[in-house]
Design goal:
39% of the residues lie in helices and 24% in strands. With 304 residues, the chain is of the alpha/beta class. The chain folds into 3 domains: 4-85, Winged helix-like DNA-binding domain superfamily/Winged helix DNA-binding domain (Arc Repressor Mutant, subunit A, Orthogonal Bundle), CATH 1.10.10; 92-165 and 260-287, D-Maltodextrin-Binding Protein, domain 2 (3-Layer(aba) Sandwich), CATH 3.40.190.10; 169-259, Periplasmic binding protein-like II (D-Maltodextrin-Binding Protein, domain 2), CATH 3.40.190.10. The strands form 3 sheets. It has a 6-stranded mixed beta sheet. Strand 3 (92-98), helix 5 and strand 4 form a beta-alpha-beta unit. The chain is globular. This is DNA-binding transcriptional LysR family regulator. Keywords: Activator, DNA-binding, Transcription, Transcription regulation.
Length: 304
Amino acid sequence: MLEVRRLRLLRELSQRGTIAAVAEALAYTPSAVSQQLTAMEREAGVALLERTGRSVTLTPAALRLVEHSETILAVLEQASAELATARTELTGILRIGAFPTAVRTLLSPALVALSRDHPRLELLVSELDPVSAPAALRAESLDIALVQEYDYVPTAPETGLDTEPFLEETVYLASLSTEPLVAHRHSLWIASTPGTLCHLMTVRACEAVGFTPHIRHQADDFGTVLALVAAGQGVAFVPELGALESPGDVVLTPLPTRRRTRLAYRRGTGTHPAIAAARAALHTACATIPHARAVIPPHGPAIG
């Protein structure tokens, strides 16, 4: 009989690519991961890994087993969720991941509501870039998170996760003039750090109108970005949540580009009472964002 713990390790290896990365994500040592995967091969009776020096690749049998593991892990999550519905009070730990602007504008009121309605539920918040959230959810270091995509940076469906629509925003060109985007081909630009979705969106949106942006400053906090724009240090793209409080001399020109945020959680956990409560609280908080700038679709929590 295959162990669930080892199935999870194999699934993580298929996602992360190296034993070292799996070990780091799941708080194992690399040797422990190797030992567990070797034991899994003995249980399965077939080769699961092809080892070449320090690198490993999954065999066709292992890839098929990963597909089955997604179903198995989701069914176990759903069983746990159904058992939790029998409790009269929400307890335990709920780990929530969100990007910085969402922590300030959306997560804070949701946390107030959750703490009031479920005082025995321990809430743990992690601020992280949305690109890191799917892996953190699968590794069970998060239970629910906000994930994103931009028009110019679509994301592929993530295995092992369910998502639901949450928020759609207009992206603004923040500058000190009313000139259109194409007029800023020779301007200095302010963008988030390389590797983030916002940085890639900046590059691709500019390339779409015929130029590569000259990025001089890098900042991940949109308050900092707007302060730099106000100081004449460059121009930038800022989504609506980041532009709710902008300096008075900064001109925000709406663009056709959109940023879409979704709620994400492990497959099978959507009906868990703690996840359902978090989903409801986040949707309620989302509805309070001023509609003068936030384009928020009237999505309620789609339980189930």
